[in-house]
Specification:
The protein is of the alpha/beta class. The protein folds into two domains: 16-69 and 340-449, Aspartate Aminotransferase, domain 1, CATH 3.90.1150; 74-338, Aspartate Aminotransferase, domain 2. Helices cover 36% and strands 17% of the residues. Strands 4-12-11-10-7-5-6 form a seven-stranded mixed beta sheet. It is globular, with a radius of gyration of 22 Å. The two termini are 32 Å apart. The relative contact order is 0.16. The structure holds pyridoxal-5'-phosphate. Residues 124-126, 129, 152-154, 228, 232-233, 260, 262-263, 288 line the site of pyridoxal-5'-phosphate (PLP).
């Protein structure tokens, strides 16, 4: 047993009960689910998680950016119970209920832009993206989509056509929707054009104009441009500050901007949406993950004139806007406001980033630190000079963290992601980052010794 206050791991992992659960899961559940390590959850509260063998972990993964208010926030639990006792489902595809109106009245004003907006509710991120694809095609009557390499927008066949972060996600599933043009994302640390920001003067935008629009993409056929303000699964990569403003020339050509806030949204970056730091107003915004603190709910929000191009029956989903999830979303918004979680994300995010930047100065394997609020990526490399991707090194750090009581996962191949619940407390966060640093130090000395 170690002497930590929060992270408490006894003996070897996985423990006996976890080992048995991992074995049984493999018997029944699709092998397409890939896991980072054998954590078998018994209970979770706030930013602490207990496994079935009694070990306790600090949660820096938040159910993949879902547990915005932490696990089992009392106000969320209370809201879920209250609604479950009234009615659990009634399908908003055919009937009405009130809390949907309340949620829309709370949510829509949080989306940038002055004009009237409307919302379509689904259950998952991919569903929100599917809706945005269909809606922007319906509205513009144009076939083409633009998306970035490195993008992640989901795994259903439409969303997967936009996703381009790992070949495995598409392996054996082709053909997808053919009318998608991918072009490079401005990943400044690994600039595809070997330029340096800001001296490059956004060469990436010129390249897109010269090599795509001037060569083979008929811009008048493009319905919409899908982007993440900070790429998530692609490696926690923020676009440089003026990038989306510089891409706005596309709007003059009638291309709709769809901002995927499924991972960056709901306060993660210290603002309600990640795009707020970029000074543009998207036409469509997709939200999921953190909106209902763990219950399945997604929202595709569009300017009213766009949403109104859909006619009754054109799109729906039986489970969309489940009333229990809607009540959890209302409680989530209450908690974010009353507990000042955006401020917490900014304050603790700045502190965490400072710690990771100090590690970058200290350790050869920390190549880059980036992100905003409690959405921070630490890219692990073999050495700073070549920037060779440190896939195995990152895996060893993640493994060290798990065995010492911190849940950290990757983004992309070699970026550690730091996404604790938005209400993580400073003492829990500090202890978790200390353990991450120990892991980085151990792997760094093993890597740089040879
Ligand atoms: C930016 C982004 N878009 C879409 C999705 C897909 O969401 P879901 O897994 O809920 O379908 C994800 C999931 O990680 C995501 O990060």
């Amino acid at each position: 047993m170690n002497s930590r206050k929060f992270a408490k791991v006894q003996g070897k992992l996985p423990g006996p009960k976890a080992s048995a659960a991992v074995k049984s899961t493999a018997k029944y559940v699709s092998p397409s689910i890939s896991r980072f390590y054998p954590l078998v959850v018994e209970s979770a509260h706030g930013s602490l998680v207990k496994d079935v063998d009694g070990n306790q972990f600090i949660d820096f993964a938040a159910g993949i950016a879902v547990l915005s208010t932490g696990s089992t926030h009392p106000k969320v639990v209370e809201a879920v119970k209250r609604q479950a006792e009234k009615f659990i489902h009634f399908s908003y595809t055919d009937f009405y209920y009130d809390n949907l109106i309340q949620l829309s009245e709370r949510l829509l004003p949080l989306i940038p832009g002055d004009g009237k907006k409307m919302v379509y509710y689904g259950n998952s991120g991919a569903e929100a993206i599917e809706a945005a694809m269909k809606l922007t095609r319906n509205h513009t009557k144009r076939p083409l989509f633009l998306a970035h390499s490195g993008a992640f927008h989901g795994r259903t066949m439409g969303a997967l056509s936009l996703t381009a972060s790992k070949p495995m996600q598409r392996k054996g599933a082709l053909p997808l929707i053919p009318d998608v043009v991918h072009f490079p994302y401005p990943y400044c640390y690994r600039c595809p054009w070997k330029q340096t920001f800001p001296e490059c003067d956004y060469y990436c935008v010129d390249y897109f104009k010269d090599q795509y629009l001037d060569k083979f993409v008929p811009v008048g056929d493009v319905a919409s441009y899908f982007f993440e303000p900070i790429q998530g699964e692609g490696g926690y990569v923020p676009a440089p500050p003026e990038y989306f403003k510089k891409m706005e020339f596309l709007r003059k050509e009638g291309v709709l901007f769809v901002c995927d806030e499924i991972q960056t949204g709901v306060g993660r970056t210290g603002k309600f949406l990640g795009i707020e730091d970029y000074g543009i107003v998207p036409d469509v915004v997709t939200i999921a993950k953190g909106i209902a603190s763990g219950l399945p709910l997604s929202a595709t929000i569009a300017k009213a004139e766009i949403m109104e191009s859909w006619k009754p029956g054109q799109h729906a989903s039986t489970f969309g806007a489940n009333p229990v999830a809607v009540e959890a979303a209302l409680a989530t918004l209450d908690v974010i406001e009353s507990e000042k979680l955006l401020e917490n994300a900014r304050r603790l995010g700045d502190k965490a980033k400072k710690r990771f930047l100090e590690m970058k100065a200290k350790y050869e394997i920390v190549g880059d630190v980036r992100g905003k609020g409690l959405f921070v990526g630490v890219e692990i490399v073999k050495d700073k000079k070549t920037k060779a991707r440190g896939d195995e090194e990152a895996a060893r750090v993640v493994d060290y963290c798990f065995h010492h009581g911190v849940l950290v996962i990757f983004a992309g191949h070699n970026t550690l992601r730091f996404i604790p619940p938005l209400n993580v407390t400073e003492d829990v966060m500090d202890e978790g980052i200390d353990i991450m640093e120990e892991g980085i130090a151990v792997v760094n000395s093993a890597t740089t010794k040879v």
